[in-house]
Write a structure and sequence with these properties.
Length: 222
């Protein structure tokens, strides 16, 4: 008979993952912080995409992104052959972006607070959908016109290797594994770091299927 004593005693083992990892002066990883709200977030994403479907946009360089995107909140991030911008209207539907769900606002604020950023009230939310092989090259987030406020990001479903660079594109990168329910908060001196996502490895996740979802919250200056 199979010896399953260790399986039965699993509940006695502590969760060895710390609940907060300071990656640098202004960067904090909160492993599993979004797990309790994960299903509510999935429902919220589903509702948003019925009004504003995921699209693969083009970059000013001319290529199509491998990541499909949509947005919610007062401002959405848009990339065209003309450049990057934050807009109040979704150019694919000519409608305002869907409202930012309360669960998103609350979760982003709580994560920022836990990471030491008081009073984060994002007015832009970008939702990224990755299929296996999709990636995001090294870039900076600097279309917000405001680097005082942090960025908060939630990861769901398939895991990703996050590339965390320096203030120059050529600086060396560290690799950080992002898993279902993990939250990253990034601000202060680290706000303008180059960062990216390595190609997503094929797999199936109980929550999202063959997908990784990333939800980022930003404050755009008006
Ligand atoms: C570090 N998204 O949407 S989230 C992006 O997983 C983006 O989809 C990645 O980079 C993703 O722009 C990474 C983590 C993240 C987000 C914003 C940052 C890290 C950041 C801004 C500055 C520095
Ligand atoms: Fe980014």
């Amino acid at each position: 008979m199979k010896d399953n004593r260790s399986v039965q005693m699993d509940f006695l083992l502590p969760d060895i993952r710390p609940n907060s990892v300071q990656l640098d002066a202004g960067a904090v990883l909160l492993p599993g912080f979004a797990l309790h709200d994960a299903e509510a977030c999935m429902l919220a994403v589903h509702r948003i995409t019925q009004q504003a479907p995921f699209r693969k946009m083009y970059t000013p360089g001319g290529g199509q992104m491998s990541v499909a995107m949509t947005c919610c909140g007062p401002f959405g991030w848009v990339s065209t052959s003309q450049g990057y911008s934050y807009t109040r209207v979704n150019p694919f539907t000519d409608q305002p972006w869907p409202n930012m769900p309360t669960i998103f606002q609350t979760l982003a604020h709580k994560a920022a607070q836990k990471a030491g950023f008081a009073q984060f009230h994002p007015n832009a939310c970008l939702i990224n959908s990755y299929s296996p092989g999709a990636r995001m090259g090294l870039h900076q987030d600097r279309d917000e016109g405001c680097t005082e406020q942090p960025v908060v990001s939630l990861s769901f479903g398939l895991e990703a290797v996050f590339l965390w660079g320096g203030l120059k594109r050529s600086d060396p990168t560290r690799q950080i594994l992002l898993r279902d329910g993990d939250v990253l908060v990034w601000g202060g001196p680290d706000r303008l770091r180059f960062h990216g996502i390595k190609p997503i490895r094929a797999g199936t996740h109980a929550r999202t299927g063959e997908t990784r979802l990333n939800i980022t919250f930003r404050f755009v200056a008006t």
